[in-house]
Amino acid sequence: MSNKANGNFGDFGGTFLPEFLAEILGTLAEKYDELKVTPEFQNDLKALYKNYAGRPSMLYYAERLTKKLGGAKIYLKREDLNHTGAHKINNVVGQGLVAKALGKKKLIAETGAGQHGVATATIAAYLNLDCDIYMGARDMDAQKPNVYRMKALGAKVIPVTAGQGTLKDAVDVALGAYAQDHADTYYLLGSAVGPHPYPTMVRDFQQVIGEEIKEQMLAEVGKLPTAIIACAGGGSNALGAFTAFIANEDVELVAVEPAGLGAETEKHGLSLGKGSPDVIHGFKTLVMHDDEGEIAESYSAASGLDYPGISPILSMLKENGRLALGGVTDKEAVDAFIALSHLEGIIPALESSHAIAYLFQDHGKYSNPDDIVVVNLSGRGDKDVENVFENLI
Ligand SMILES: *Cc1c(COP(=O)(O)O)cnc(C)c1O
């Protein structure tokens, strides 16, 4: 094991991998540092944000939700309106360009519920790259529509039957395939987690969300918001919304994690709220543990939030006292899913519904009508309607 002393965020981050993989990623980190400062890369990125992802995304004044809550003005950052329906496209266009610039022929990725697999297959199609998506066999059964989307986009979906046949096993098999074929392939990671340079890269490609919020707020209202609220699974949409505001200390940054069946139960995903430092998937961060001190399994009805670790950058911000933390149960999220759909005619992803639900909780924080609160609506809920009505209501 090797911890190269870069990509550290306070006590978190780094690279904890076997030497040969650490070297491959060390090279990637160097290449990315060179690439990201070139005008050509930045221009290509801006063009893809605009012409492919559909940016800038709208900053929407949720007037009916505001009236219902009776306090601060609520705005929604509409990442649900991006091409493919979520913030994940911001990351894959960026990493896709990195892969292309490095002369790679194939993208590989693992996927759980299939959202990241679909996003990766999308950019692979656009950039004319081959695409192998590793997916647990059990997940493939449970998520057929996303498997068909990936196939339609030209990706090969490779079932992983090892272990439990779920995401964790898919990660191991995908990493093995990458190690064998790293000269021609690029491993595209889906959130601001994993070893260096992924947390940095994903943060860099998502921070456009907060930069736009800032510009749109100043243009429309002439001041910065009181608070920005985002759900946090791996932490990429939260960091995307927060990064431009970290230096604006008056702006409260709220990361809302899944409390699942309840914070007091063992069925939740409160990595920031209840975790302690440990190494997971090649990096150090706050991780959930069981009573024996082993890494615990996480749980959330929102599969995008179901991860026992969290971005090392969010762990650092928490330790620095820069984050406010929220926890929202499955039930509260489903109630918010229905409430936003009824009030505004906007069906939010179950993940994003956690951020909306935070507004409905009884903390009395946003009662002043002069205040402005921005909720990052990370994605649309079309993918969730069946599960909500069949299983969750
Ligand atoms: C994947 C996903 C998330 C969780 O990922 P983060 O890295 O925490 O942002 C949240 N919302 C939606 C809509 C997603 O698809």
In short:
The protein has 393 residues and is of the alpha/beta class.
Structural account:
The chain is an alpha/beta fold. The chain has two domains: 2-48 and 87-202, Rossmann fold (3-Layer(aba) Sandwich), CATH 3.40.50.1100; 56-85 and 207-392, Rossmann fold. It is built from 16 helices and 16 strands. Strands 5-6-16-11-12-15 form a six-stranded mixed beta sheet, with helices on both faces. A four-stranded parallel beta sheet has the order 9-8-7-10, with helices on both faces. Strand 13 (276-280) and strand 14 form a beta hairpin. Helix 2 crosses helix 4 and helix 9 crosses helix 11. The mean pLDDT is 96. Bound molecules: pyridoxal-5'-phosphate (PLP). Pyridoxal-5'-phosphate is lined by residues 86, 88, 115, 191, 231-237, 304-305, 349, 351-352, 378-379.
Radius of gyration computed on alpha carbons: 20 Å
Sheet/helix structural class: alpha/beta
Rounded average pLDDT: 96
- What is the CATH C level class of the largest domain, in words? Alpha Beta
Strand adjacency order, main sheet? 5-6-16-11-12-15
Biggest sheet details: 6 strands, mixed
Shape: globular
Distance between the termini: 46 Å
Output the keywords.
4-stranded parallel β-sheet; 16 strands; alpha/beta; Rossmann fold; 2 domains; globular; single chain; 6-stranded mixed β-sheet; 19% strand; binds pyridoxal-5'-phosphate; 393 residues
